[in-house]
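Q: How do we represent a protein-ligand complex in a form that can be generated token by token?
A: Start from the inputs.
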Amino acid sequence: MHEMAITQSVVDAVCEHAAGRTVHSVTVEVGMLCAVVPDAMRFCFDLAAEGTVADGARLDIVELPGSAHCRGCGADSPLTDLIVLCRHCGSADVAVVSGLDLRIRSMEVSTACAQPVDAETTPR
Ligand SMILES: [Zn+2]
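Then emit the structure tokens for the protein with zinc ion bound:
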């Protein structure tokens, strides 16, 4: 299950951006070639976010299809898995253009601090 490692890095980035503010929801875009199972990712998110500013935040996952560019005929094909063949000429000589990315599209944080920031002092 590689979702845990991926989700942990998402939570890390979210907490960094939140800078102490409470996170209400996070939207991530996941390329279909990442082979991430959304339900598993939500489960991991809850675990990884426990005790952080993202604790209890909602995770929205947007799955994006990938695409490949054929070196033979120059056509682009949509990709939903890693078995890559050109839809036009059947060539396997294709380059994966997208579908392997995972990024945080947006996140919703509270503008006012619910708790004093220095209530918890974490030495860095
Ligand atoms: Zn082709």
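The mean pLDDT is 88. Residues 68 and 77 are 5 Å apart (CA to CA).
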